[in-house]
Amino acid sequence: MSDHTDAHPHPHGHTHGLIDPSIKRSREGLRAVGISLAVLGATAIAQAAIFVATDSVALLADLIHNFGDALTAVPVGIAFLLRSARAERIAGLCVVAAIFISACVAGYEAVLRLLDPRAPDQLGALALAGIIGFGGNWVAAEVRTRAGHRLSSPALVADGNHARADAYVSLGVVASAAVVAGGLDIADPLIGLAITLVILRITWQSWGTVRGGAHSH
């Protein structure tokens, strides 16, 4: 594991006594990953409970993505545990792959609902699920992005940017509840497709962040 000490210079240049800077960096990274995993896991569980009651494909798209986003913490956490720059780059690629797969699943479900339309139920609960998604993703984004910049980790920065965009995606669920309440039932799968397109855009942006980080190291 010789690459981690050169690959990530520390802006403050101190070692905290006898603690190796790479170990301190590993602990900070794991802490950020753990907090964001807990926040997004709780968010996805709450949304899953509401999905059972609402049967909204827009919420399903957001829910799938939030579960996938929570799980991206695993490879990033392993990379920090290994204290390896190469493992972090691989983790960044895993993040991008997870985002892309979640987009494919969400898009598939939205198309199925367009072919067999049915309006979601419990619109108040549906709007609440979108608000929960926004809050959970915003908190996770702040934790990941700040730690990513502090630790010079492209994988964490990509994950943070991704979570921040997801916060706005979750507001699409609120919009779905509002439009369906106005009588336009087909809005739910259409918003599900729109969310899918946003997720694909996030995939492309995250790929650029991870590639850029790899080149800078």
Task: Please give a handful of descriptors for the protein shown.
217 residues, mainly alpha, Alpha-lytic protease prodomain-like
Could you characterize the architecture of this molecule?
The protein has a single domain, classed as Alpha-lytic protease prodomain-like, CATH 1.20.1510. By secondary structure, it is mainly alpha-helical. The chain is built from eight helices and no strands.
Please compute the radius of gyration using only Cα atoms.
19 Å
Order of helices and strands: HHHHHHHH
Q: Mean of residue pLDDT?
A: 79
What is the CATH topology classification name? Alpha-lytic protease prodomain-like
* CATH hierarchy: architecture: Up-down Bundle
Any chance you could write out the topology, listing elements then pairs?
Elements (H helix, E strand, L loop, with lengths): L2 H5 L13 H34 L2 H15 L1 H10 L2 H31 L7 H29 L2 H28 L5 H30 L1
